[in-house]
Design a protein that fits this description.
Blueprint (H helix, E strand, L loop, with lengths): L1 E6 L5 E7 L2 E8 L5 H16 L8 E5 L5 H15 L6 E4 L1 H7 L2 H7 L3 E10 L2 E11 L5 E13 H9 L5 E4 L3 H7 L5 E3 L9 H14 L20 H10 L2
Parallel strand pairs: 1-4, 4-5, 6-9, 9-10
Antiparallel strand pairs: 1-2, 2-3, 6-7, 7-8
Helix pairs in contact: 1-2, 3-7
Amino acid sequence: MKILAIDTTAVTAAAALVEDGQILGTYQQNGTLTHSETMLNMVENLLVNAKVTPDMLDMLAVSAGPGSFTGVRIGVSIIKGLAFGKNIPCVPVSTLDALSENLRPMAQALGHDFYVCPVMDARRSQVYTALFLYDTDADGTVSKTRVWEDDMLSAAELSARLEELELPVLFVGEGCRVTEREVHLPHCKEAPVLLRYQNGVSVAVAALAVYESAADKSVFTDLALKPTYLRPSQAERERAEKQNG
């Protein structure tokens, strides 16, 4: 199965082309250009270099949120455009779920249990976050279990929740700069920098898991694809404040 996967939910722009677990190509960029300027070029280069046309794709995957409101909309819109008229499954995934997949190789290498806490800067000393457990069986089989649903917490609330955990916790995501300032727990550390940011391969892996576990796969259409927000936009918040006096 050929999967094109993208992530535009944070500063990092990421895209990947994956076929049956093999990486055909991947891009990851942190810079001053906007995602609307970089992502279409990334996608085009991936397809051209792999000699793959859009009609040859079996799935389109996108991190649909949480994250930057503009970034989320850009990613979803690009996937909708690529899928238009082609009847290709479009699979949205949680940005936090995809980020947690960055550390699956580490779980396979370490061989011991630990938590992954994806964190994305939601501003005002808040983060979008979730919690996942990687555990390794005696035969070396690694499994991932979601512990917390996606949520938006203050740094203090996140610290209080993490304080109750006994296993090591690894932070992943650009929200690490928030946790570095405000979460000071001895069992909580940042993931290595090479595994810390958005990764198109992780989006593809997360999307395939979502697709394969779905009882009704007909729901993954371009028309049904929508962004996921955990809070109202700034414009919506300002309008509500005016209405409330």
